[in-house]
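Possible regression after last week's pipeline update?

I re-ran a chain I had predicted before the update to compare outputs. Posting the input and the new output here so someone can diff against the archived version. Not blocking, just want to make sure nothing changed silently.
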Amino acid sequence: MNFQTVAFVAARQKEAQEARKCLAARYDHVAPDEADIVVALGGDGFMLQTLHRYMERRVPIYGMNQGSVGFLMNHYQEDGLMKRLAQAQPTELNPLRMTATDERGGNHQAIAINEVSLRRNTRLAAKVRIQVDGVVRLEEMICDGVLVSTPAGSTAYNLSAHGPIVPIGAGVLALTPISAFRPRRWRGALLPGKAEVVFDIINAQERPVSAVADFTEVDNVVQVVVREDRDLAPILLFDPEHNLEERIIAEQYLP
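New output (post-update):
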């Protein structure tokens, strides 16, 4: 990976801030808006924030784990950082664009690198109609919610909802129910990456639903449209021996 300048950004946690100070004292660096590579110090949540922040610049992000899970991060080490950055391998992600219409007719758009999820807001189960590319696939699903996940996000909320792990580059999305009551035996579907998914909320006033795209939440939605945004492609950098594709494949074999 060819680069001239690097920037360091860190989560608010003490460990991440101390790591940033150590690296900044040891290596030449510039402001994030001027850098060829941004080194993010924290956990997966902070990595998602960093990817969103610099997505339109298409600046590659190299993460080092100073958080809890660190699935999207490389291991932290101060020595040999510039060599690691030069040898890092890029992984290009295809995020989702959510267009949500609320009960007042307002339209809200947001980008999701992990997933777009719908969740009930009250004790009453949600009722959702699901269309894929203009075809109604489920006339009514009674559930706590439903989500559409990218391959990068398939090991996050999608996995905890018993959705499939999807390898990077597979060109598919995971459509996964969250605690579905009817149809009881439906466990979700794999969709082409170019598919457009439309969720219509049935009886939205009595059974309110919110929609969430990573960090953006819209309350009281009546319809949510989800599709890949091919104009955006955030870039993650990984050490060759620890790349994201291998991690996702290996995750399928964990006990």
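Follow-up from reviewer: compared with the archived run. The radius of gyration is 20 Å. Marking as no regression found.
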